[in-house]
Design goal:
The chain is α/β, with parallel strands linked by helices and about 300 residues long. The protein has one domain: TIM Barrel (Alpha-Beta Barrel). Helices cover about 45% and strands about 15% of the residues. It has eleven helices and eight strands. It has an eight-stranded parallel β-barrel with strand order 1-2-3-4-5-6-7-8, surrounded by eight helices. Helix 7 links the parallel strand 6 and strand 7. The radius of gyration is 18 Å and the shape is globular.
């Protein structure tokens, strides 16, 4: 029987490598997703995940994408699930859809309000208030292995890292078995997150989420998503080559390789790459790390 993601992380052997994709909106997007999955499969990821859209058509495409990956590759596939725009009954239907296509891993996250990550949260009628409640629901619906989100730079809604640690412990007590972080740019932010969690009794394996930068236009958006701006020295490196697409990509790979190296040295149990449904930068980063590290 294949180990669950949580079991692989708990073994504390070689660090895991995993990739995140998003559900395509068009047939062309489906083809791009398939190419990205095929291109990254030779890297032998421990698992892949597919993000979740709460609206009907996007939700269907999420399930379709998880089915494509789980049936066409041997890779363990994890579906995301959010509280946004859904009742408890709709959440249960989504879980049934995952189970029907053989997906037994779920990443449970509250999700951002329609107005963005800093907008006030409003509970959907008949829905759930937070990710802790979602974890509890998922664990009550079947034999799912459940992951949750974590925030090295603090959740952008409240910027209270001590509260974030307590919420992560709540998620563990509700049944969560591992965590994957939001994107971030400083290794010490991840180390501090782990230290805060351990200090209050949270033992979840916490996998850092890595976002390769391939376009200067991404910098501001990434800062909003992470909850903290990119360090000035990194911004200057990207701005200096802003007119050269290949040079931007090369800097992005260098920055990510350096960050990943620091994280592995700090004891990170794995690396989770947000691929944006493209393979090139992620493959270059993993390749560079494997050339210099025997344990990845």
């Amino acid at each position: 029987m294949t180990d669950t993601i949580a079991e692989r992380l708990a073994q504390r052997g070689d660090p895991t490598v995993s990739f995140e994709f998003f559900p395509p909106k068009t047939d062309a997007g489906v083809d791009q997703l398939r190419r990205a999955v095929v291109d990254l499969e030779p890297l032998h990821p421990d698992f892949v995940s597919v993000t979740y859209g709460a609206t009907g058509s996007t939700r269907d495409r999420t399930v379709e994408a998880t089915q494509v990956i789980s049936t066409q590759t041997p890779v363990t596939t994890m579906g995301h699930l959010t509280c946004v725009g859904q009742s408890v009954d709709e959440l249960r239907t989504a879980l049934s859809s995952y189970a029907e296509v053989g997906v037994r891993h779920v990443l449970a996250i509250r999700g951002d309000p329609p107005g963005g990550p800093t907008a006030p949260w409003q509970t959907y009628p008949g829905g759930l208030d937070n990710a802790t409640e979602l974890v509890r629901l998922i664990k009550g619906e079947g034999d799912f292995c459940v992951g949750v989100g974590a925030f090295p730079d603090g959740h952008p809604e409240h910027h209270d890292v001590a509260l974030d640690a307590r919420i992560l412990l709540d998620k563990q007590e509700a049944g969560a078995q591992f965590a994957i972080t939001q994107l971030f740019f400083r290794a010490d932010a991840y180390v501090a997150l782990v230290d805060r969690a351990r200090a209050i009794g949270c033992t979840l394996p916490i996998v850092p989420g890595i976002m390769p930068v391939t376009d200067v236009a991404q910098l501001e958006r990434f800062a909003t998503l992470s909850g903290a701006p990119m360090p000035d020295d990194m911004v200057r490196r990207f701005r200096a080559v802003a007119d050269d697409e290949e040079a931007v990509r090369a800097v992005g790979v260098e920055v990510a390789v350096d960050l990943c190296g620091q994280l592995l040295d700090a004891g990170a149990p794995g690396l989770h790459f947000f691929t944006q449904n493209r393979s090139r930068a992620t493959a270059q980063i993993v390749g560079a790390l494997r050339r210099t590290r025997m344990t990845l």
